Amino acid sequence: KTSRYVGNVLGRYREREIVPKEYFKEPVSLIFEDTMINCPTKYKEYLSEIYGDYMKLPSVEDRVAHNIELISVGDAE
Q: Which InterPro entries match (predicted)?
């Protein structure tokens, strides 16, 4: 309750994902493709903290794939 920051230190960007908790006060509804989603109150600041200039595409040689793998641990009930 008294912390001024929140974050996901286990995420891909570790400490960069620690941001002021005011970023998440009230959600902002935005349309992404054909879906309405809730975003952080200060989503632009949040994206800037993690990605820097997130509106600028990286140069071709700096672009990387984000390969996602599915790991199955069997049937979980």
A: LicD/FKTN/FKRP_NTP_transf
